[in-house]
Design goal:
The protein folds into two domains: 48 residues, Arc Repressor Mutant, subunit A (Orthogonal Bundle), CATH 1.10.10; 146 residues, Orthogonal Bundle (Tetracycline Repressor, domain 2), CATH 1.10.357.10. Helices cover 77% and strands 0% of the residues. The chain contains ten helices and no strands.
C-alpha cells in the first residue's frame, strides 16, 4: 500500500462521491464523509483544507474520468475509415458500456454539484464545463467529417448534435433513477444512435 497517503485520499473521495450523488453536496457533512471513508478528521484535513477543497477535488477527479471515457472511445474508433461508420461506432461504445456504468454508479456527480449555485459562482464546477466542451469539440469533429462526406450536407448544427450526446448521458441518469430502471441509460443511448443513423442515411 502506498505510504504517501494517496490510498486514504482516494477512499475519502470515493466515500464523498457516493454521499454527494445520493444526498446532494450541501446535505453531505464532513462527519458523514469521514465516517463512510473509515478515516479520521486529522487524516481528512491532511488532504483537504475543508469542504470547498473536497468539492474541487471531487469535480476535478470526476471530470478527468469523464474525459478519459471520451478519449477511450476516440481511440477505440480511430481505425474506422468511413466517417459515418465511425460516428455510429463512437456512440456504440457507450451503448455497450451503459449497463456496466450504471452498476458502478446510480447517478452523475455533475447534477449534484451544478445544483449548488455557490459552487458555480466560486468556479468549483469549471471542470464540468471543460469536460462538456471537450466532448462537444471531439465528437463534433467526427460528426462534421460524416456530414461533409454527404451531399447535400444535412441542415443540422453539429455542435448541438454533439452536445445532445452529452445531454443524453445526463438525462439517462435522471430517467434511470426516476424509473428505478438502470437499463434506461442504455435505452436512451440506443435511441440517440438510431436517430443519428437515420440522419446520416437520409
Amino acid at each position: 500500500m502506498p505510504r504517501d497517503g494517496s490510498a486514504n485520499r482516494q477512499r475519502i473521495l470515493d466515500a464523498a462521491e457516493r454521499l454527494v450523488i445520493d444526498n446532494g453536496f450541501n446535505a453531505t457533512t464532513l462527519d458523514q464523509v469521514i465516517a463512510a471513508a473509515g478515516t479520521s478528521k486529522g487524516a481528512f484535513f491532511h488532504h483537504f483544507d475543508g469542504k470547498a477543497a473536497l468539492a474541487r477535488a471531487l469535480v476535478e477527479r470526476y471530470a478527468a474520468g469523464d474525459v478519459a471515457h471520451l478519449e477511450g472511445a476516440l481511440e477505440a474508433t480511430a481505425g474506422i475509415d468511413d466517417p459515418a461508420e465511425r460516428a455510429l461506432a463512437f456512440v456504440q461504445v457507450f451503448v455497450d458500456g451503459a449497463d456496466e456504468l450504471m452498476q458502478e454508479q446510480s447517478s452523475c456527480l455533475y447534477a449534484a454539484m451544478l445544483a449548488e449555485r455557490q459552487l458555480i459562482v466560486d468556479g468549483t464546477t469549471s471542470s464540468i464545463r471543460d469536460a462538456a466542451t471537450a466532448w462537444r469539440v471531439e465528437f463534433a469533429k467526427i460528426l462534421r467529417a460524416a456530414f461533409d462526406a454527404r451531399a447535400p450536407v444535412p441542415d443540422i448544427d453539429v455542435d448541438d448534435l454533439s452536445d445532445h450526446l452529452f445531454a443524453t448521458f445526463e438525462g439517462g441518469f435522471v430517467l434511470a433513477r426516476a424509473l428505478e430502471d438502470p437499463s434506461a441509460m442504455r435505452s436512451q443511448l440506443v435511441v440517440y444512435r438510431q436517430l443519428l443513423s437515420a440522419v446520416l442515411a437520409a
